[in-house]
Structures are given as structure tokens and as C-alpha cells.
Design goal:
The protein is an alpha+beta fold. The protein has three helices and four strands; from the N terminus they run H-E-H-E-E-E-H. About 9% of the residues have low confidence.
Length: 165
Amino acid sequence: MKINNNFFGMNITAAGLSIQRKKMNLISENIANSSTTKTDDGKPYQRKYLVVTQKAIDANPGIENAAIKLNVSRGDHMTQFSDVFSNQAQDSAAKINSDEAIDTKAGDVVYMPDHPDADENGYLQMPNVNIVTEMVDMISATRSYEANLTAFNSSKQMAKDTLEI
């Protein structure tokens, strides 16, 4: 989700909302496949998780040493800072990469001789998904989503209050 360039804080919280939504989708997929003992490649399901990284940026390059005269009310009175307020500067501020990763840890081996996927000795390799861990992660993602939503609503209220001045 991308918000208008004038609302820099909203872009960051919108990116946080998107990340938490992706995380909850992966957790849901893990829970749904917690008993899948054979996938398309013939192995048990492997737990997926989200890896999030952010590009380090300077949010206001060049502004701290600038003297800006605002005595003329025209749309182009700040043209010398067009690179600072451009789409590129705003987009890079909320540049967050999120990639799926697969947990390669082996799951439990249980004795189930009647299961169709069991080996010749009757042992079955289970997925490495722990429901308790997934539920804790889901609660954490839900709380983070709520925190980002609260920050977004606060930014929205500040913008609204600014218009009333």
C-alpha cells in the first residue's frame, strides 16, 4: 500500500501493516500444513517464516543546512529541494524487503506403521511445525498489526487536525 507522498509517516506504518499481514499468512499456511507428511517433492512440509530487512536511508538529506525563504506563496517556491521531496526519496524511506525463508530443521520422527508415508521400519517423518510456536507468533503479529494501525490512525488524525488550523 502506498500513501500520498506528503504523508511520510503513513507510508512507514502502511509498510508495517503489509509486513504483519504477510507474516500472518505464512503462519496460517504453517498451521494448515502442520500434519502434511508428503509434499510435491516427497518430503514433509517445512515451516516457512518471514525475513524482513530495511534499507538504511537519510530521511531529510540536505535540509538541516538549508535556508528556505517562504515569503512568496507559489507552488514552485521550494524547487531547490525537489530531489528531497520527490517520489524517489519517499519510496526509499519505506523500502522494506520481506522474503519467505524455509526452516530446514527436521521434524519429529514418530512410529506409525499403518501410515501410508511411513518407511519400511514404520517410522514417519513429521513436519517441523510446532502449533504452540505458531500461535505465539500469530499473537505477536496481531499485536504488531494493531500497533501499526494505531500509529497510522494517529498520523491520520494529526493530518486532519493540521487542516483544521
